[in-house]
Write a structure and sequence with these properties.
It contains 7 helices and 7 strands. The protein is α/β, with parallel strands linked by helices. The strands form 2 sheets. The protein has a 5-stranded parallel beta sheet with strand order 2-1-3-4-5, with helices on both faces. A two-stranded antiparallel ribbon has the order 6-7. Strand 4, helix 5 and strand 5 form a beta-alpha-beta unit.
Amino acid sequence: MKKILFFPASLRRGSHQRRLVGHLCGLLGAGFEYDIVEAGEIDLPIYNQDLEGNASIVDALVPLGARFAAADGLVVCSPEYKAHVSPYLKNTVDWLSRIPRLAPSEPYPFSMKPLLLASASTGWTGGVLGLQDARKIFSYLGCLVHPGQICVSSADHWAQGDSYRFSEEFAAHVRNMMESFLSLVGVSHD
């Protein structure tokens, strides 16, 4: 059984990213299970190298890093903040990338990890500008970033409960993107 970790990188309750995660989880077929990192689970201060010696921060960071490392693939749903990734996403990644230095016996959470980027936005770009930054960050960290992505524009229009109800054409695009990503997960870890 392959495990996909979903990270809706928004702190807002009822965020479009969380709704998109709900939709994408529903597209996982047999042979896949999922883990969702909820916003309330991460309480890390703004990254500051002076805080790296703080045992309580490291104690909170190590289990989170273990969840990322244990996943066979990552799906990051990131909001766009003025054409960039959210500060919450950047801060979480900044801390996780320090695991080799802070807990050398722990696995690095990003090495050769297949990753799919997605975003949902009320705007017409669907968060594509923020995903450009996310692609750069995760590639630098060593992830195998899928060449495609999912960008949901006018997200409030498609919202239905905890998920989305897309047009047939866009639903097919989202399904195809997930299938392509899941095949990358299967190939890279078999």
